[in-house]
Design goal:
40% of the residues lie in helices and 17% in strands. The chain is α/β, with parallel strands linked by helices. The longest helix is centred in the first third of the chain and has 22 residues, at 85-106.
């Protein structure tokens, strides 16, 4: 009988893509999707067959025990991002502990959890490989996600740590950079830093591959496109999404100047600190071990998502 896979966060930015990839995969899977609200039915050839939807919450251990009954594989994508300390702890830390306990008790033999490279804090990180960096989270989100990782790893599970994730449905990364640039009189000269990025669909496939491949090993993986992205490329893509007509922006502003101009804008200071510092994580195992071609890099992929970003920013 095909394995039963439980996917948490099935209505989220990344979890919904994992659910869609699993529902349309050539191999038959019995899917159980956990979400606080019922997700939209998967679309595409074969979608919807063998898909079960259950409602639950990481803050409700009883709902997690029910969701894990009969599950062979867990793909944990649910998290609270940017929430206050209490909510972050209840969801990312205590909720993950309850979920992993329920999965282990149910007899799940494969646990894969989505985390973030932000558990290492602020860089510079240049070609950093797994096992070489300490955990040094700097925010409530990162601290509690690091705590959640520990439960997964203690249970013999696998953790995927992307750095920056972009693509259709992204309301954080690219919109945040556009918001930063809109607050400046001209383009931002971000310097020469390099950043690890991955598009949401590639990340979703990596999570599914990690859950299904016999070559997956316990422990953390960095999962990003193998080619790091120069900060200038990320900034150029965001600059092109600004509403200002071409040629109406002033001269470029360097990071030091931007920090001074936006010294009282907390979100801008956070973004500037990140953009100005190398965050390049190197790990070829997701592509080598799981037999997946990483495909084209950021410059080619961002074009596929630009219409969606334009629509989002136009209506925001």
């Amino acid at each position: 009988m095909a394995p039963r896979i439980l996917i948490t966060g099935a209505t989220g930015f990344i979890g919904s893509r994992v659910a869609a990839a699993a529902a349309t995969a050539p191999e038959p899977h019995r899917l159980r999707l956990l979400a606080r609200r019922p997700p939209a039915p998967p679309t595409g050839p074969g979608a919807g067959h063998g898909v079960e939807t259950v409602t639950g919450d990481l803050r409700d251990p009883a709902s997690l025990r029910r969701a894990c009954e009969g599950v062979d594989t867990l793909i944990h994508c649910a998290s609270a991002i940017g929430a206050d300390e209490e909510t972050s702890r209840a969801v990312n830390d205590e909720g993950t502990r309850s979920l992993i306990d329920a999965a282990v008790r149910a007899g799940a033999t494969r646990i894969v959890s989505l985390s973030t490279a932000s558990v290492h804090g602020r860089g510079p990180f240049r070609a950093a490989t797994p096992g070489t960096l300490p955990l040094a989270p700097g925010s409530a989100t990162s601290r509690t996600r690091a705590a959640g990782e520990a439960y997964v790893l203690d249970a013999g599970g696998t953790v995927l740590r992307p750095h920056l994730v972009y693509g259709t449905g992204d309301r954080q990364l690219v919109p945040g950079v556009v918001r930063l640039l809109a607050a400046l009189p001209g383009p931002l000269d971000g310097g020469s830093s390099l950043h690890s990025l991955i598009d949401v669909d590639s990340l979703a496939r990596a999570l599914l591959d990690a859950a299904l491949s016999p070559r997956t090993v316990p422990g953390p993986y960095y999962v990003n496109h193998p080619e790091p992205v120069p900060v200038a490329d990320l900034l150029a893509a965001a600059e092109a999404l600004l509403a200002a007509p071409p040629g109406t922006r002033g001269p470029a502003v360097d990071v030091a100047g931007a920090r001074e101009l936006l010294r009282d804008v907390s979100f801008a200071q956070h973004h500037l600190a990140m953009l100005a510092t190398d965050h390049w994580f190197e790990d070829d195992r997701p592509w080598r071990d799981w037999g997946r071609d990483p495909g084209p890099g950021f410059a080619a992929r961002i074009a596929d998502h630009t219409p969606w970003y334009r629509s989002l920013l136009h209506h925001s």
